User: Fold this.
Amino acid sequence: MDPRPRVICLPNTMTNWPWPRAMNPHYEVVKAEVDAAFREFKALSAESQEAFDKCDSEYLQIACEFVNVLIIVDEYTDVENAAVAEAMVGIVIDALHNPHKTRPEGECILGEIVRQFWARAIQTTSLPFQRHFLDSYTAYIRAVIVEALDRDEAHCRSIGDYIKLRRDTCAAKPLIAIYEMEMDLPDEVFYHPVIVELVECIAELMLIDNDMISYNREQATGDENHNLITTVMVELGLDRSGAMVWAARYHTEVEKRFTDGLAKVPSWGPSTDVLVKEYLDGMATWARANHSWSYETQRYLGTRGLEIQRTGLVPLLPRVNCKTSSAGAKVNVADLSMMDATADRKHLEAPDQPNS
Assistant:
């Protein structure tokens, strides 16, 4: 008999976050257009595409396309070794720097997906955004290689080392850069130590929430070493619930660091300060958006995300064999419908209790 608890308790980390959930009024129309265009690549298996689908309008379209790019790159690289992941990363970086170059025949589809995305994005976005996005996205995609190497070696990092790497692999920084698309945000603002620290705070909030909510899927697919919950369990000797409580407390600490840091933002003059305020509000909104999206998409919690957000109780997925999965064979994700089959109500009566 499997001695592991059958239910995971998810703390509500965003109760006191001042930035509320909000939906762009153009979302439904733009999402339909972006999803239809993306589907033409046929980059996912039928199962993954089904899960994917359930997951100012011009800039909104670019943002939606970028989220699609992130998901597909993640799906491909997450199941490959470091050598293959590095080759894929090389293709992606080349496509970003050469958006008008025809991709080689037979190349991994990621090259063409990224090329088309960036070729459209650079038509209307500001030059400072383009520079900053390329810097942050390159840091993210190179960190993916390190993650793959850790996966090859079954290496579980210390908490500090993990958080440092995960700030990049969670892709928060290029996502935050999306708010710059129509801004001429000076480099002296973007790279100012106070602004950089605020970006790091939002990246940490996003990685904590993502790792807590995605932990179930990742432990099921054997990819839990690149997850804060596992790292905390290993380093501090806590059980799963104790690690969740630790992560939630750390989340609260980071929230305070961010709000305190806002008071330290200098002035660059009235015209630039307006942009800075919009940029800071945007990155704070990303923390809320990431949390809401993680529950509302079917990527991590199947069809029960909103119910789980309300109850905080997640039926534990059984482990599945993903050894045969590969990007070349079209990526398959964990069968999240199993959550519905394993969610026997009697298991919800005795959840894994957090440490006191």
In short: Residues 198 and 258 are 6 Å apart (CA to CA). The longest strand covers residues 7-9. Confidence is low (pLDDT under 50) at residues 51-56, 325-351.
